[in-house]
Amino acid sequence: MTSTSTDNLCIPxxxxxxxxxxxxxxxxxxxVRNLRRLSGGASQExxxxxxxxxxxxxxxxxxxxxxxxxxxxxSTAAGLEIEAAIIRTMAANGIPVPEVRHVxxxxxxxxxxxxxxxxxGETIARRVLRDAxxxxxxxxxxxxxxxxxxGIHGSPTAGLPELRLTxxxxxxxxxxxxxxxxxxxxxxxxxxxxxxxxxxxxDVPPVLVHGDFRLGNLIIADDGIAAVLDWELVHLGDxxxxxxxxxxxxxxxxxxxxxVAGLGAREDLFAAYEAAGGTVDRARVRWWxxxxxxxxxxxCAAMTPLFxxxxxPSVERAMIARRASENEIDLLRLIYLGD
Amino acid sequence: xxxxxxxxxILAAVAAFxxxxxxxxxxxxxxxxxxxxxxxxxxxxxxxxxTVEQGAHExxxxxxxxxxxxxxxTLTGELARRIAARQIDPFAxxxxxxxxxxxxxxxxxxxxxxxxxxxARAKLAVAEKEMDR
Lengths: 339, 133
Known about the structure:
- Chain B: This is DUF6285 domain-containing protein.
- Chain B: It holds the Pfam family DUF6285.
- The complex is a heterodimer.
- By secondary structure, chain A is an alpha+beta fold.
- Chain A has 13 helices and 10 strands.
- The radius of gyration of chain A is 20 Å and the shape is globular.
- The A-B interface holds A 3, 5, 7, 39, 180, 184-191, 193-194, 249-250, 252, 254-257, 314-316, 318-319, 322-323, 325-326, 328-330, 332-333, 336-337, 339 and B 29, 32-33, 36-37, 39-40, 43, 73, 76-77, 79-81, 83-84, 86, 90-91, 96, 99-100, 102-104, 106-107, 110-111, 114-120, 123-124, 127.
């Protein structure tokens, strides 16, 4: 849901507050210009601004990601400080990520978050899938995704900050509890729970999993992947989770017949993943295919109480809740037709 | 209450007014939110269009697989409960057909053009053809 509006949670940032950290962003500090909230991101605020360095007059394009209203954090989120630390580690491992310039300190008075360099390219999925700028790169993207994911999954886990560990059993327990807590009965979700129970597999040694690797969270340039963003759901677990999530039906953005992000065939993704050192386990991918569809369906369905109790009374929230049925038909297709 | 025009007809007119007269004057986030609101009106319009017969058909399918009668919501809850308790086999042909039918009926209201629905129907048609052979 990249377009989700969180204006009700939006607390404006003063240029002066940003000016206070200018010295941490560029040697000698500078003048903050053109601060604006970027659209998108229900669980984090993203702001863009420019910093004109006092020393040499050069303009630095920067991005601030912070907790909504400065402090809110979702229960499954790793936390912004951890996210920043992971991004720095990924940069050192050669994964394309934006450069972290500063992690907010409570004394900065800006809440929790971090500032990165701006990266040129496109995040909006429909543009990546349709605009002429990306015509040449599109066929190469599934393989590039495989390559980058193998790099993330192959990262050494020693020395990383403490991360949530998500095995199949824990995922299943969480999903089951969430399905049972929904405000309306959903037989198809129960079929999915049952299928996941019957097909659960032994855990594998946990690796670093991005947790939300899909168009919308990637900056795509006309020659490839410019940056992997949105590390807020990063955790340790089964690498096949990322492969399945990238292929989930909602993340095909209308190009449903192209399983990998609406761009191409699973074979291209898998072959590149293996060429880059990963190992694809089809049975596990399939388990995560079903878990992914159920995950997204539960997320949608759980919007109803938030809409009703006034937490977010927007029309958009109601309409997201009504998308739960999309996940139900996806689950039927996955479970009954093996697609 | 019964009078004319019907709710669905009025909603269609409101949606058309918003799309044709208001939308062109908006931009940015407000334009986006209006598009969402128009989609919401269209969803409600489709739900208003569900016939008594369609509702009764869905209820009858549920009643048949559960061998009990009741309100559709009660039966849906009972079906969910029995699947969870492993008291009914979701892969039995009549149960599977019931699940597909009630889900497709939801999509017809929520998002009739959803690509996942198109793909699911295409794959189902292929699977049924293979079974016939």
